[in-house]
Amino acid sequence: MTVPHEHRVLAHLFDIRNIIGALLAIYGVVLTIAGFAPGILRDHADPAAAGNRSDLYIGTAANWWVGLIMLAAGVAFFAWALIRPLRVQAPAEPR
Length: 95
Description:
Keywords: Membrane, Transmembrane, Transmembrane helix. The chain crosses the membrane at residues 20-41, 61-83. The chain has a domain at 16-39 and 56-88. It is mainly alpha-helical and 95 residues long. The chain has helices at 5-13, 16-36, 62-83.
């Protein structure tokens, strides 16, 4: 007995590797944008941050490095799900 196409699509859609890959990719895109365009997130003329001696925002490229790593991990999860897809077994027939 063959498995209906709908069951295979649902199994592929709700595969945990695809869900984790999507979350990693979304967060990776957000962090990459935050790293490449830091002016979008906050105003550097903020007087509250003027006396901050340990302002890690200046000179730090951690956002886009981590964003790119998360994007790569998300792509790896998607590739893993495509290379080794789930095998859906046909439901047992009642006797």
